[in-house]
Amino acid sequence: xxxxxxxxxxxxxxxxxxxxxxxxxxxxxxxxxxxxxxxxxxxxxxxxxxxxxxxxxxxxxxxxxxxxxxxxxxxxxxxxxxxxxxxxxxxxxxxxxxxxxxxxxxxxxxxxxxxxxxxxxxxxxxxxxxxxxxxxxxxxxxxxxxxxxxxxxxxxxxxxxxxxxxxxxxxxxxxxxxxxxxxxxxxxxxxxxxxxxxxxxxxxxxxxxxxxxxxxxxxxxxxxxxxxxxxxxxxxxxxxxxxxxxxxxxxxxxxxxxxxxxxxxxxxxxxxxxxxxxxxxxxxxxxxxxxxxxxxxxxxxxxxxxxxxxxxxxxxxxxxxxxxxxxxxxxxxxxxxxxxxxxxxxxxxxxxxxxxxxxxxxxxxxxxxxxxxxxxxxxxxxxxxxxxxxxxxxxxxxxxxxxxxxxxxxxxxxxxxxxxxxxxxxxxxxxxxxxxxxxxxxxxxxxxxxxxxxxxxxxxxxxxxxxxxxxxxxxxxxxxxxxxxxxxxxxxxxxxxxxxxxxxxxxxxxxxxxxxxxxxxxxxxxxxxxxxxxxxxxxxxxxxxxxxxxxxxxxxxxxxxxxxxxxxxxxxxxxxxxxxxxxxxxxxxxxxxxxxxxxxxxxxxxxxxxxxxxxxxxxxxxxxxxxxxxxxxxxxxxxxxxxxxxxxxxxxxxxxxxxxxxxxxxxxxxxxxxxxxxxxxxxxxxxxxxxxxxxxxxxxxxxxxxxxxxxxxxxxxxxxxxx
Length: 723
Known about the structure:
By secondary structure, the protein is mostly helical. The chain folds into three domains: 34-173, Tetratricopeptide repeat domain (Serine Threonine Protein Phosphatase 5, Tetratricopeptide repeat), CATH 1.25.40.10; 256-567, Tetratricopeptide repeat domain (Serine Threonine Protein Phosphatase 5, Tetratricopeptide repeat); 574-719, Glutaredoxin. Helices cover 55% and strands 6% of the residues. The strands form three sheets. The chain has a six-stranded mixed β-sheet. The longest helix has 22 residues, at 259-280. Mean pLDDT is 93; it is low at 1-25.
């Protein structure tokens, strides 16, 4: 225990600091406005492999044009965070540049920040050309409230007005391909044909325009996907440096059944994202696309008969650092994607004992989606193992969750389909075959319609028409089984599970040519698969030997033989810590190697004059016993001199901090704890594992004080399997 007098001394010290000038509360926050408290705080660098886009603006500084063009190219691939960094540097170089604010408005994911930036652009629109004014008015029409509108929150009217301004821009400046690209973006999905014509016009002038290829992929993602095959093949080649640009072609390839190409696309994307995270000292939870991408890749690997790779990817997501803001218990968080991917792979490849053991999938006890999924997957496992009584108990647990659906509407439809499917399986297991088939048929149709709405990847773990087909085969009804598997194949092209079912159903019907056709397609679909897959084995037991034949609409490369190392590493790992050369309170040199074998909580703080910093040091420091049990030391870095640190240590009393001096902010810059735009120190809290690797961090305007989260993260660091 820390003596009371030291705790009291620290409190008195902190309270005295709080009594200082109120401006000290804003240390670490932007001096320009609250909109700048979010987003990147370090200057940009030239990013390779992002495609080319030239968007001339009014500026006296050629460097501003350079960074503006980079920002626009990044916007065209939806890399908003890095686009904002480029536009922010434009503003650093020219503080009154109207178009820099325009770029910031397009980059800001937070609507309030976007509104602030548009407002600033509007204030300065008299300083730019008529063309640029129209660009600003486009955003103003869509983002700023209309005083003549009865319902300012009516986004539909704002979007319509904004589109009209873009149309005017295109008419007045017909050679401006950027305007046409942005109009195609605004039109895609709702006016697919119109968007396609605009995209063709852009590509006729600029064949490698990154936005045109990107928007074409989105435009045809769920309708006539073959229309986007050319752009799917081209986009990743002209933009190999952006994860989302490598990822999006995988959507098209998945929908048309080109699973090899889809895997290459998604795998390259996850690698590019991991490389970026490594280079930029960011984490999986900072990357908006990474979890979805890795989750999707696991699904594609399942479609190729690669369960080990799919499961390994799922575990990467489960083991990724948590975050109280960006990797929470939400059903679409990084960890949740990992749990769903793991359970799905175990189910689809018949690893039922692991699915039912309560350990292999580390479900969270208090999370509704996990409780629902756990009950469902365990029921499925028990049915597969012939343990109907245990399945009934799991069904009861699933049913008992119904009252909680009111607070979990986003997954209600999935729960309902699961409920009906489990009832179907129970009826079938108890010998009520007709009822079981009827219930499964209804569940399959509901799951079919759900997947038509969202299939990247499907929300549901298994195509239920395939399940229905298996039930029909078991009931000795191969004709109906064939119909069910055909529906499964209609929904998921080149699906190995549907193909296996069709081989068996047509063989049972005596349709040798049809059975051979599907056997050939199955042989191609699983040519790079793991050995002894159940679906392949069951098809082979018919005696029909397939010769690999691709049923996809275009030629594919062999994913199993591809090297994708040029895009980045295959696995996310904690990063090697940046250089750390500081001085302690005795002016002795200190580096991280001095703490090898210990975890480190590293805090960058703003000095003794910052009251929030002192409160943070006190709050974390008073948990000395907890840190000791976790093999953890506390280090705090500021620009204070060693002499000043001696004074601060006296004020902190017996709290177990080592205060370190970084006089010229060199270390703070390396650790992203310095704002290059406003040239000031930032608050940062970083966790470093026993190997000296950076595992988690929070950087910005406020100290991080969630001690419960920090201790839980360190416990996870201590227990993670060796990489």
